[in-house]
Amino acid sequence: MGEGPPVLFIQGVGVHGGGWSPQVEALSSGFRCLSFDNRGMGASQPLTLPLTVEQMADDARALLACQGWDSAHVVGHSLGGPVALELALSAPERVRSLSLLCTVARGRDATRLSRRMLWLGLRSSVGTRRMRRRAFLEIVMPPGAVVASEAEELAARLEPLFGHDLADQPPVAMRQLRALRAYNASTRLGRLARVATLVVSATHDPIAPPRYGRALAEGVPGARFVEVSDASHGVTIQHAEQINTLLREHLTRAEAQRHSGAGRLANHAR
Asked: Do 61 and 36 contact (CB within 8 A), yes or no?
């Protein structure tokens, strides 16, 4: 969708590709945007092979080939962050830039059971459907953002973005979490020195707290780190305008640097 430099959006656990709609709709005026359902999600069925982050990175690389794109800017949220990292590490020539949102370099950091996540996880799995929706909203929204009397209306508005009723988790979610937990790119981040990288964290994110985003950014030479206040794991939805501005600036800058670098090489060749 759109015209301009290509951008590939990679989603996180239990969310279909349509979750990127706020970003795709805003950025398609200047970029060719592609989002997709991860293996085992939405229309990408059935899931027959063991699930790993490396396999998901291979899927993303195959999508680039299917589009006829030799390279693209890559944006990943949550689990999509490690997938984007692995794609950049295994095929750096295919990645024009990285944008890593609410994510980690070491999967076990995002899958650890803190007291808050244990409580929210239990509440999102047991009880009435209304109670489970409310608990899920408290994971993706910051404290105070979910008013009890409006929770059902908010859950209904978000359902199309997540691709399922917020009271439920897709069957693939546990396999995605296991794949995430097994992944660790923290010792290889230095290899991404030539990849323009933006890392964004949300202050109240219980899954990928800012300290992990900051560590990720510090590991990638030259990476930019931004922390969004009054936000949680659903920052791409709650603060879509701010995220879209950050992405547009980063993608535009990375594309300009890419072309200026090619120009310098061409001049040197003469």
From this structure: no
pLDDT tens per residue across span 137-166: 999 999 989 888 899 999 999 999 999 999
Are the beta carbons of 183 and 82 closer than 8 angstroms? yes
Question: Which residues, listed in sequence order, are joined to residue 32 by a DSSP beta bridge?
Answer: 6
- The whole model's pTM is what? 0.93
Structure tokens at 189: 């981040």
* Other beta carbons within 10 Å of 128: 9
